[in-house]
Every structure is written in structure tokens, then in C-alpha cells.
Design brief:
- It contains three helices and 13 strands, in the order H-E-E-E-E-E-H-E-E-E-E-E-H-E-E-E.
- It is mostly beta strands.
- It has a single domain (21-310), classed as Outer membrane protein (Lipocalin, Beta Barrel).
- A twelve-stranded antiparallel barrel has the order 1-2-3-4-5-6-8-9-10-11-12-13.
- A hairpin with a 3-residue loop joins strand 4 (94-107) and strand 5 (111-122).
- The radius of gyration is 21 Å and the shape is elongated.
Length: 311
């Protein structure tokens, strides 16, 4: 019996912890974003984000293709939790709950094209107010007092498109990857341009944790035992419409405090990624200029991601 138990434990250890570079076709990941990760006393603007993602590699051999299914929620608040009158709210209260499908395709020259669509809801129905009040009560934090002025309920559909391609690669130790993104829909219409600056041990874009593309069917599988690198991602965002500030495009309701978005938003992300066998992780810091001129301050937040791959 002891021998059988020892063999079973050894096999389980082999499955879970030994190198698995082939045919890890599926991946679950969890991402949490919060300004509290920066050990700040304040809790403001982009207050909290939670995302669950399932990715699966397509069996196509002509090119690497990944299907991704995501559900997520974002919460936005003004700079002060005491803000409960119209004149005190420098950034609208808003929750955003959504489901999204994306498809990523790899091409020659280390290029990636991703397209997708999302169905989401803003307002009280997004459960942003309910979730924030629940965890603030759980951890003994004071609640925000002005949620009665949050943006009103509105359902929307958005389409997303992004393209990335390595421009420069120095001996697989440093690379520059320009990245363009765009969204068109009833909640968010915008465009972003920037570039990834990556230093360390990394895979090609189609097999890297940088773009969450390590899942595979044996085709375009990672060639390194692990990835460990740091990156910077400076970018500029052109805002045309932002429902978290302006409310629903076709249904703004009444009684909400809304705001006009800044045309350009500057953003800087700094992060570190690690991946080996079945596991991936990412820690990221983001600093962003004001989304609307009424904001008293800029905003910063941290994020943490864990991923697990399987057959």
C-alpha cells in the first residue's frame, strides 16, 4: 500500500510540476487590478477590476489561433469616499460588468492580430456598488457615499481589434514590439498606440506570456523551459466615447453625475512576467493621466495575474 501511494504521489508530481512544453492546449487565468496593491491610503478612480479568462488553442496547423472567453468587472469612483454631492464628485461613480470573446491569430514576422467583441452593462445592474460595499465592509473600510449618483443602467456591445509585431530584436535579450488597439461600440470607442519594450528571457510573441499565448497543440509550442522578463509599455489613448464617464450612448437616464472625457490619455505600464511549464504569473504597475478634466489627480494602480495550463 505504501509503495502504491508513493508511486501515485510521484506520478501526480510529474503531471503537475515537471516540464510540459507540448500540447498544453487550455489555460485558466485570474487577474486582479486594484490601487490598494500599491499600498496607498487612498482608493480612487479605477478602484477595482477582476477578470476570469479561459483560453484554448485551435487545432489548426496553418497558423496558431487562440480562442479566449472572459468575464470581468470594473469599478470606478471619485477621489474621495466622502464625495456625495454633485460638486464633490470629480469622477463619476460607475460599475462595468461584461463578457467577451476574442480570437488571436499569429502570422509571419512575429505578428499577432486579435479581434473580439464584448457584451456589457454599466450602472447599478453591473453590481459594482454592491461588490465594493461588500468587501469594504468585510475589511473594515469606509464606504463611498455617493453611489446614488452613479451612471444609470445601459447595455452595450463593443468590438475590439489589436495588432502587434516585433520591430527590433537584439539576440533574444531585448525587443521592441509596437502595438495598436482600437475599440468601437456603444460603451467604448477609442484607439491606443504604443510599444512594448522587453528585456530578459522571452519567447516569440505567438508563444509568450507577454500576450498570453503559451497554450498550444504542439504546434508553435514554447521552445524555452521558462520565460522571465521585465517590460515597459508606454502608450497614448485617444478617447472618442467612454460610457464609464458619459453614461450609456443611447440611454443616459437621469440623476447621474457624468463627465466629458479628455481627448488624449497618457499611460505607462511597467511589469514583470514569469512562465514555466503549466504556470504563468504577471505583476504590473500602471500610471495614467486624467481620464477627464474634472479629476483632481492622475491615477495609479497595480495588477496581479496567475495562469494555469492543462491538456
Amino acid at each position: 500500500m505504501k509503495l502504491l501511494l508513493t508511486i501515485a504521489c510521484f506520478l501526480l508530481w510529474q503531471v503537475c510540476f515537471t516540464q510540459q512544453t507540448k500540447s498544453l492546449r487550455k489555460e485558466f487565468s485570474f487577474t486582479s487590478e486594484n490601487d490598494a496593491f500599491l499600498l496607498q491610503i487612498k482608493d480612487a478612480y479605477y478602484s477595482n477590476g477582476v477578470f476570469l479568462n479561459f483560453r484554448i488553442a485551435d487545432t489548426s496547423r496553418s497558423q496558431k489561433k487562440i480562442h479566449a472567453f472572459e468575464i470581468g468587472q470594473k469599478i470606478f469612483t471619485p477621489v474621495s469616499r466622502k464625495a456625495e454631492t454633485i460638486n464633490e464628485i470629480d469622477r463619476p461613480y460607475c460599475g462595468y460588468l461584461f463578457a467577451r470573446y476574442t480570437q488571436l491569430n499569429s502570422y509571419k514576422n512575429d505578428a499577432l492580430l486579435q479581434w473580439g467583441s464584448s457584451l456589457g452593462i454599466i450602472g447599478k445592474a453591473s453590481l459594482g456598488e454592491a461588490l465594493q460595499n461588500s468587501y469594504h465592509k468585510l475589511f473594515g473600510f469606509k464606504r463611498f457615499e455617493g453611489w446614488k449618483y452613479q451612471v444609470r443602467n445601459a447595455i452595450g456591445i463593443d468590438l475590439q481589434l489589436s495588432y502587434a509585431q516585433t520591430l527590433f530584436n537584439f539576440q533574444d535579450l531585448f525587443k521592441i514590439v509596437p502595438l495598436g488597439e482600437a475599440s468601437l461600440g456603444t460603451h467604448f470607442t477609442n484607439a491606443r498606440a504604443g510599444a512594448m519594450l522587453v528585456i530578459g528571457t522571452f519567447e516569440k510573441n505567438k508563444s509568450s506570456v507577454l500576450f498570453n499565448t503559451r497554450v498550444n497543440t504542439g504546434y508553435a509550442a514554447p521552445t524555452r523551459k521558462k520565460e522571465l522578463f521585465v517590460y515597459a509599455y508606454p502608450s497614448v489613448l485617444l478617447q472618442v466615447y467612454n460610457a464609464s464617464l458619459q453614461g450609456g450612448l443611447f440611454n443616459k437616464g437621469s440623476g447621474a453625475v457624468l463627465a466629458t472625457p479628455e481627448t488624449f490619455v497618457l499611460e505607462q505600464r511597467l511589469g514583470i512576467c514569469f512562465a514555466r511549464d503549466r504556470f504563468s504569473s504577471r505583476i504590473e504597475f500602471t500610471h495614467q493621466s486624467k481620464e477627464t478634466a474634472s479629476q483632481l489627480n492622475t491615477q495609479s494602480y497595480g495588477s496581479f495575474q496567475l495562469g494555469f495550463r492543462m491538456f
